[in-house]
Amino acid sequence: MKLKRIVSFVLFIGIIMSLTSVALSASEKISLDDWKSYYSTIDNTIINLTPGADESELNFSWHSSFTAQKPVVRISENEDMSDYDEFIGTTSVSDVIGQRVNRVTATGLEENTTYYYTYSSDGDDFSEPSVYITHSSDSFKFLFVSDQQPNSEKYDLAENSYKWNTVLEEAFNNNDDISFIVSAGDMTNSGDVKFEWTATLSPKYLRSYAMATVVGNHDNRGLIPTYSHYVNNPNTYLGLWPSIAGNGYWFRYGDVLFVMINSNKINSHDTYKLVDLAVDANPDAKWRIGVMHHDVYGTGGHASQESAAKIRALVVPAFEENDFDVILTGHDHIYGRSYFMDKGEIVRNDSYNSGVVTDPDGILYMTSFASSGNSRKPSEDHNYPWLGYVNESGNDGYSTIEITDDGEFIIKAFDSTAGEQIDEFKIIKTDFTFEEKDNGGYFYGALIPYLCEKYPFFAKILGK
Ligand SMILES: [Fe+2]
Ligand SMILES: [Fe+2]
Question: Nearest ligand to the C-alpha of residue 146?
């Protein structure tokens, strides 16, 4: 009996170790029971990795007890953590009474290298090492997901997060060359519940891959939205009207500029300014990708709401003025992609339906699947003219986006429930110059046209 108990204990510890320690093994599939055992051991102090300002940096954030005041991350190329580099960060107040938020940036990371990191909240007591593997940034692949949205009011969060983990399991078991993850918001459902962050950050993959996120409309909810307490985003732009929920930022990976927008924040010129600042700081980027939550040229009911119309009028012109290539969105929980769009019009491209376009005009908008059992089926009511492809299954899924150093942008989308690829689309660039336009900026190019259309008396006053 005693031996049986010891064996059970050793097996349980084995499960926990396999979920939390360094190794990332391919084709691993965890059962719901094992997931629940693991889930009972974690809380909102779990560490979150976000991209640094570029591929040579990695940002960390985590919650700890209020009394711990020296956040440290050590990085080594050796699993025994010998010859480590040490990075000391900062702490700030937290969304949780009795806790602090710790933020550390590690710099000087090289390509194609296996690293191990440990972290400590007090400079003394360090975690077990986790692995972090870098790839080349000349050509690279990232994972695109959205709307984890764990719902603490309706669901068991352990089961909710198991579904999210299953999407990642499917993605990483089939792609050993992912560099990082982009998630287009609704990281939580309630906006102010710490347990929902535990669910979103629970997959072990997130100890080894950075996840770049944006603020979704659900993250913008609640008494005090928690988003900004759970991320350590680089190049954050507060603007004149900082958002309590979280602000936009940008980062660079290889030849690609990523501009990450809080699309809840539209009633100011801050988003325009952020896009301009990011573009001005990255004149040599060959691709410009925007990420925001709202699917303004999207796949479901949200795309026809007033919020989408406002964002099309007040935010999209910033991307158009700066000749962005692709905008990644979520919100409607249905995978799809638009035709290339410019000023609300479809830019016809003869080869679009063949799945390969070269040097297109306009911007392609992608809408992601949701990722914790909450994807939806499209409705006939939403047969929008801008849709080039929409997924009918209603299953969760993920996309991979590969950007090659010879000018290819390759989208592949996978239904993770059926385990099959459902879409592929390629943009080829031979001309890497951007056609930046002066459409009048926020006031003359966006706000005034919007007000004139919405309020005819305003147009009359201005004689338009
Ligand atoms: Fe959502
Ligand atoms: Fe949403």
Answer: 1
The last residue of a domain, from among 134, 163, 178: 134
Ligand 1 centre to CA of 452 (Å) is: 31
Instruction: Please tell me the distance from the alpha carbon of residue 328 to that of residue 145, in angstroms, as a whole number.
Output: 9
Asked if 96 contacts 44 with a C-beta cutoff of 8 angstroms, the reply is yes
Flag whether the pTM goes above 0.85. Answer: yes
| One domain, residues 281 and 335 | yes
Which ligand number lies closest to the CA of residue 334? 1
Identify whether the C-beta of residue 244 lies closer than 8 Å to the C-beta of residue 224.
yes
- What order do you get walking across the sheet with 114-120 strand by strand? 85-88, 72-76, 114-120, 130-133
The phi-psi region of residue 251 (left if phi > 0; otherwise alpha if psi is between -120 and 50; otherwise beta) is beta
Residue 394 Cα to ligand 1 middle (Å): 14
pLDDT score, position 7: 40
| Residues 296 and 423 both lie in one domain | yes
pLDDT one-digit tens code per residue, 262-282: 999 987 899 999 999 999 999
Tokens 């009996």 belong to: 1
